[in-house]
Amino acid sequence: MSQFENVTVIKQANVYFDGKVISRTLLFEDGSRKSLGIMQPGTFTFGTQSAELMEILTGDIEVQLPGVGGWRRILGGESFEVPADSSFTVKVNELTDYCCSYLP
């Protein structure tokens, strides 16, 4: 899906890691939530409250997921899931555009 219909966009940006990761929150009529963002090159660790589906729209990252040894390379067009109440680390190799869906 290349676009979303009937959403509310929170104008205030979510800014992390001194501006190297920036996203905007989208709220849907059914109560679901997503964020659309950009990650600049670097290594970043994120914490989760709910489970997440991370779709890499464009870019090149490596991810280290909880309970999984080693790094997994993810390119534009690929995705990965992160469990709730955990953390994961990404190495961003090039400017990366992503969509994060917060799962029930």
Predict the CATH topology.
Jelly Rolls
Low-confidence stretches: none
Overall helicity: under 10%
Q: Count the beta strands.
A: 9
CATH-assigned homologous superfamily: Jelly Rolls
- Beta fraction: over 45%
Mean pLDDT figure? 96
Domain count = 1
**What is the global morphology?**
globular
Query: How does CATH name the architecture?
Result: Sandwich
Structural class of the secondary structure composition?
A: mainly beta
CATH class: Mainly Beta
Q: N- to C-terminal separation?
A: 20 Å
Biggest sheet character: 9 strands, antiparallel
Q: What order do the SSEs take from the amino end to the carboxyl end, as H and E?
A: EEEEEEEEE
Please work out how many helical segments DSSP would assign: 0
Radius of gyration: 13 Å
InterPro entries: Ppnp, RmlC-like_jellyroll, RmlC_Cupin_sf
GO cellular component, one term: cytosol
EC number: 2.4.2.1, 2.4.2.2
Keywords: Glycosyltransferase, Transferase
Brief overview:
This protein is mainly β and 104 residues long. Strands 1, 2, 3, 4, 5, 6, 7, 8 and 9 form a 9-stranded antiparallel beta sheet that branches. β3 and β4 form a beta hairpin.
